[in-house]
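Input sequence (289 aa), recorded before submission:
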Amino acid sequence: MTQRNLYDFKIKSTLSTARSMLKGAKPRKTIAVEGLADVRFFNQWFSENEKIRFVSLDGKPNVLRLHKDYLKSPLKSVKGMFFCVDIDWDLIHGKALPLKEDFLINSYCQIKNKFSFNDLESFLINSRALQKLIASYDLVIEDFNDFKMKIEVCSRKIGKYRAADDIIKNKFMLRNSVLNGASVDDFFDAENFEFNEKLFTENMPRWANYSEHIEDLVQEAEILDDANKELWSLSRGHDITTMLSLFIENKAKIKTSPEKIEKELRLSCEYADFLTSPMYEKMVLESLI
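Predicted structure, token format:
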């Protein structure tokens, strides 16, 4: 079965199950999320909730594609489904936000049109989950505010290039990205929690797909950095958790991974912090909880 056929099957299955869940003695609405980690994040509080259930669609593009099929289904008329995605850099890229009535957007308040963070990981870093994560590895951070600022600065230094990459790709109608994935590992000083931006840009010709557009990318990254001064506005969650995993390995001498750190952050989030999130606010507004 091809990837496309697998996706079509999952779409039909998800819509069919969502319809059946509405017909029981205790109807439950379905919330489609990006991944299994998001399902686990919500289920730590809502696994026994009789009004909602969560299902993973294996990525934001699939959630958005499912939403298109949902709009053509009978479920739409009874508001039988909701969808939850990260905002990522959609605002910076000028992309239209998903429909307010159908979506919960991680760390973006649709009610007040207020940006908080690009993704769930950035939200968690700014909650007590970070302290609990560090403590679980028996590490001591003297000043967590200072530590968080180091994370913001480092993730911004590479994040601005990632955000600029999509702009340059579209501007010059390129088939692939210029940045070509770019790894954090080779340019991150785990001992001092610093990202060597100078070394990063100097080495860019080694892996860039279009060396003739490197200068365009660097210029666009600086433009974005100057235009987006709000903290965390250029940070990407996976870069943050990659840096944290390298930092923890260096300090605690324990092997870990970005995926493990992401899971631990989600499960370390306290309900009191979740209650302050735009996701919770929207769930209350829609009487989902």
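Checked by second reader. DSSP finds twelve helices and eight strands in the chain.
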